Task: inverse folding
């Protein structure tokens, strides 16, 4: 994702936050306070919009050496997006599955899926980790620490 | 004071607390050694464990995790040139070339001794100064607190690298915004909850930590696929000649003192301390590689201890890591600051004394284990990433019991990954999130006391002093620009 998209997203977020901050309903007493429930969020929103705009301008028109340095991210990323998408999908699947499955069963499935996505193909690791983690977790959390999990 | 220290010693030396220090050091070292996982991640991963302990035991364990992870980070920094955290970057400058030249064991041993020296010196200085700092802190009220928190936030932005100042400000603001979600404590109104009850209590800090550090770090590792480490290590490498020890002792001494006082400054922390110390040794010292490993290692460990001064005695975190620790303390129902020193001296002094114990444990546990522990660094990424993701998700689920929070965590982690890939530092975000409530609460309380008069902040000498220093710090970038 290029910086311009990130800056646009941050700016949109700042503007949305500012609009929501203006919609905070105040009671009649605190409305008269020098700093009420709205004040600081309004300042944060405004400052974010300004800071993003300044950074955006700096990166579009680097004028000085310092600006040029700030115009480039620390390390030009050669990112592989496929693992990120697969990992996110798996986590999302795990979250959805928690509505139907027992927690530890879902954890076992998640570990197996994550290992597979990360190109782990040794069956000993795949089976071992996806069994050991949920069993270990169950024993530690529900037996040793006696935590009752409403989710499981 | 002596009585308080004795209370601390008796608290720290109870069997269970000694055990938790040892466990914390070991766990911190193991996690910190893994590429990309630093003290913040280590502490975040251990939060669920700490919740099952009493506050003293939990904090003592967390302190152990902290300096264990700082030390562990140096190991991956030296062995595979992969500093898990910024504070160990300077160690890799000379440590990694030493490892490449077949001196991995020697570099690791020097790092271990230097860490011990730095940590111990820091703990001793803390023991002497903590009380006086705490007595100064008693005079601090809402106005001063608000000024101090503002000072910490200013430092985070101003002391960042020049190219990172604006990105730091942006992530700090994002943290402040995230911290403002939920029911306003003073006005009792709902803010930014989008009409859902899930957000009415605010965003849990465990969720933010896990999302922005543990999960985002796992995503980053998956997208970058770092090189796998290799190498062999023997016990003989751990012996350092006496002549070298004599040469490195003054280096460790001055670096430790420098590191401690830099660490005390809110926002400066271990990273700045390690770079300062490395730079100082390269400019003024003998410039040897051994000194190049000793200086940053002593400094970053002393700074880690130093960062506990503002955290424990003022309630102001000096770094991202101590911000997480502040969150842990708040979760325990403890309010760090003058009240902690006077009302719960066993916790305050227990944690401080345990730092010295922790350093002893670090040396005793890690030195003989270095050849074996180093193998953890070679844990394949395809196994490491699933483990980190699973532990992060479980960590949040077991503390919030909310599936909604898992979804929010995933969304935040994705945003954090994108921000990081564009060069936005994430530590300020965490700092902003933690400080958000403290800043707003204290500022509003101070203004309520003064009937809304802003001049009240200027009437109080300490608050005025802090604000003036704050303003002076803000002028540093302008001064530097003029110079250059």
Result:
């Amino acid at each position: 994702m290029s910086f311009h998209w990130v800056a646009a997203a941050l700016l949109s977020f700042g503007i949305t936050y500012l609009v929501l901050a203006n919609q905070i309903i105040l009671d009649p007493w605190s409305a008269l306070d020098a700093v009420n429930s709205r004040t600081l969020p309004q300042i944060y929103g405004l400052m974010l919009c300004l800071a993003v705009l300044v950074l955006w301008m700096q990166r579009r028109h680097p004028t000085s050496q310092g600006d040029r340095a700030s115009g480039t991210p620390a390390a030009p990323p050669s990112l592989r997006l496929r693992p990120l998408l697969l990992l996110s999908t798996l986590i999302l699947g795990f979250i959805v599955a928690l509505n139907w499955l027992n927690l530890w069963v879902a954890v076992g499935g998640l570990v197996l899926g994550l290992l597979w996505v990360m190109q782990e193909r040794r069956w000993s690791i795949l089976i071992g980790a996806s069994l050991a983690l949920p069993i270990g977790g169950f024993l530690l959390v529900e037996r040793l620490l006696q935590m009752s999990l409403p989710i499981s | 004071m002596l009585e308080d220290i004795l209370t601390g010693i008796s608290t720290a030396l109870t069997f269970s607390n000694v055990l938790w220090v040892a466990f914390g050091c070991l766990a911190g070292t193991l996690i910190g050694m893994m590429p990309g996982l630093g003290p913040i991640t280590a502490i975040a991963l251990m939060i669920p464990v700490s919740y099952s302990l009493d506050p003293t035991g939990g904090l003592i364990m967390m302190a152990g995790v902290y300096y264990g992870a700082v030390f562990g980070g140096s190991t991956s920094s030296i062995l595979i040139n992969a500093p898990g955290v910024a504070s160990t970057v300077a160690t890799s400058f000379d440590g990694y070339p030493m490892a490449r030249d077949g001196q991995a064991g020697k570099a690791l041993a020097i790092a271990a001794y230097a860490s011990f020296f730095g940590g111990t010196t820091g703990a001793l200085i803390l023991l002497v100064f903590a009380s006086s700092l705490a007595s100064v802190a008693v005079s601090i009220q809402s106005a001063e607190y608000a000024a101090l928190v503002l000072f910490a936030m200013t430092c985070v932005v101003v002391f960042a690298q020049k190219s990172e100042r604006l990105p730091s400000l942006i992530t700090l603001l994002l943290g402040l915004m995230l911290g403002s979600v939920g029911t306003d404590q003073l006005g009792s109104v709902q803010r930014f909850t989008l009409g859902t009850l899930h957000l009415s209590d605010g965003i849990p800090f465990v969720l933010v930590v896990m999302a922005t550090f543990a999960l985002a770090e796992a995503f980053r590792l998956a997208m970058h696929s770092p090189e796998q480490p290799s190498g062999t290590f023997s016990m003989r490498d751990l012996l350092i000649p006496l002549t070298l020890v004599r040469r490195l002792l003054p280096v460790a001494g001055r670096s430790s003192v420098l590191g401690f006082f830099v660490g005390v400054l809110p926002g400066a922390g271990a990273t700045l301390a390690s770079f300062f110390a490395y730079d100082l040794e390269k400019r003024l010292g003998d410039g040897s590689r051994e000194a190049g490993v000793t200086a940053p290692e002593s400094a970053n460990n002393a700074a880690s201890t130093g960062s506990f001064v503002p955290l424990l005695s003022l309630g102001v975190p000096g770094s991202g890591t101590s911000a997480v620790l502040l969150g842990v303390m708040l979760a325990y129902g403890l309010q760090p600051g003058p009240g902690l020193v006077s009302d719960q001296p066993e916790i305050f002094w227990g944690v401080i004394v345990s730092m010295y114990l922790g350093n002893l444990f670090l040396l005793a546990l890690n030195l003989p284990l270095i050849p074996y522990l180093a193998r953890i660094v070679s844990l394949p990424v395809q196994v490491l990433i699933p483990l980190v993701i699973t532990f992060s998700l479980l960590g949040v689920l077991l503390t919030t019991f909310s599936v909604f929070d898992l979804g929010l965590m995933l969304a935040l982690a994705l945003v954090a990954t994108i921000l990081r890939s564009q060069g936005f530092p994430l530590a300020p975000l965490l700092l902003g999130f933690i400080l958000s409530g403290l800043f707003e609460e204290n500022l509003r309380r101070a203004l309520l006391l003064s009937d809304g008069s802003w001049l009240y902040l200027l009437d109080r000498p300490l608050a005025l002093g802090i604000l003036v220093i704050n303003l002076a710090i803000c002028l540093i970038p302008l001064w530097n620009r003029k110079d250059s």
Remarks:
- The radius of gyration of chain A is 24 Å.
- Chain A is about 65% helix and 0% strand.
